[in-house]
User: What shape does this take?
Amino acid sequence: MITPAGKECPYYYEDFNRGRSIQECRLLESTPDGGEYTPDLCEKCGVPRIKMANACPNMVLEAKVKRSFLGLRRSIEIAAFCTQTLQDVPEPEIGCGQCHLEFPVFRTSAEE
Assistant: This one.
C-alpha cells in the first residue's frame, strides 16, 4: 500500500472507507515496545527502500520509534535478522550474504 510519504510499503495499512479513519504500521505493531505510529514517521522510514532492494524471505524486520536527544524528533530504527543463518543483518539492503548463495544464478562456473 502507498504510505503518506508516497512510497510502497508492505507493512502500512489504511482504511478510510465508510467513515473509518485507520492508519497503521503493522511492523511497529508486531514489534514488542515498537512505539506509537503517526503518519509523519513514514517520511523517515527505511523499510520501503529495504524491501525494494532485498526481497529475501529469510530476513525478518523489526522497527522501533526512536526519539532524539530532547525527545522532539522521532524516527524509525530498523533491525534485521536472518532466520536461516541465525544472525543479525547489519545492512538489510544487502542481506546476510549467505542466503543468495543457494541460487544457481549467483554461482560461478568454478563452483559447479
The two ends are 41 Å apart (CA to CA). Helices lie at 26-30, 47-53. The chain has one domain: 12-106.
